[in-house]
Amino acid sequence: MNLYLFQVVNGIGLGMIYFLISVGLSIIFGLLNFVNFAHGAFYLLGAYLSYTAVSITGNYWLALIIAPLCIAFFAWVCERTLIKRVYHLPHMYQILVTLGVALIIQELCISIWGPIGKSISPPDSLKGVIAIGEFYYPQYRLFVIAFAAVVALLVWYLLDKTKFGALVRAGSEDAETVSLLGTHTHRLFSITFALGVGLAGLAGVLAAPIKGIHPFVGPEVLGIAFVVVVIGGMGSFTGALVGGLLVGIVQSVMSTLWPQGASLMIYAAMALVILVRPYGLFGRA
């Protein structure tokens, strides 16, 4: 029984990481109608930057702050110089451009950090386990769940209770009208893109001590993010959260029940949701 409880809690931790990745992808598509195939590569870059920051400073907490901010800034530069030029083009061209960016980032990571995987140790204060009766669980994984939950709450507040969030939601409905009302939409697009990608970089930092880092994880992360978005519904914060938790728990529990089919089952869950609700659990037509 403790084994399955362990896997469920593991799944919640994975699900919160998947949420951080997919909510950024969902926000970007919801506002910009832009398909970002480089999202997984930014996750990868965030993980590697955290590895470098920890290697230089020996301080994981500093890496947790620096790496996502660097990724967000890099995403802002990419959006201002390249991405904004293909907003008006069909999705096929957006996919080609962002896929090219993803390949460039991947090859740069291999050139700088090498093809061999890296690992990061959790901070000393979070090493060890917490005992709750006969149930033992790693402290760092509990921290990931709690920290990601706080970030989720902050993102919800930003999108639901602030003027910026109102503009993002209005822009996802009719960007032209928002522009006519006096909002600098290009600046709004840049900030939104940086925010979404920064959250993916943050997920990479949080996941690095758990899953390690290797230069070919980008496509895998991107695939899971799309599954979460499809299950939860495009452009939905709640959908990204519920979809991430569902995928994380299914993947974690199935790794015990049927290890060979753990990845297969998340796609089966996606197919089931599509059959019942083609626009996702919380999506709109």
Automatic annotation (TrEMBL):
What is the protein's major site of localization?
Answer: membrane
Q: Which molecular-function annotations from GO does this UniProt entry contain? A: transmembrane transporter activity
The record, for InterPro entries, names: ABC_transp_permease, BCAA_transport_permease
One GO biological process term is:
amino acid transport
Question: Which Pfam family, any one, appears in the UniProt record?
Answer: BPD_transp_2
* One GO CC term on file: plasma membrane
Q: How does it sit in the membrane?
A: Multi-pass membrane protein
Q: Which UniProt keywords apply?
A: Amino-acid transport, Cell membrane, Membrane, Transmembrane, Transmembrane helix, Transport
The UniProt transmembrane annotation reads: 12-32, 37-54, 60-83, 95-116, 140-159, 188-210, 222-250, 262-282
Q: Which residues form the signal peptide?
A: none
Where in or outside the cell it occurs: the entry states: Cell inner membrane
Query: Which family does the record claim for this protein?
Result: Belongs to the binding-protein-dependent transport system permease family. LivHM subfamily.
What is the name listed in the Swiss-Prot or TrEMBL entry for this protein? Amino acid/amide ABC transporter membrane protein 1, HAAT family
Q: Which organism is it from?
A: Neptunomonas antarctica
Its organism's taxonomic lineage begins at: Bacteria, Pseudomonadati, Pseudomonadota, Gammaproteobacteria, Oceanospirillales
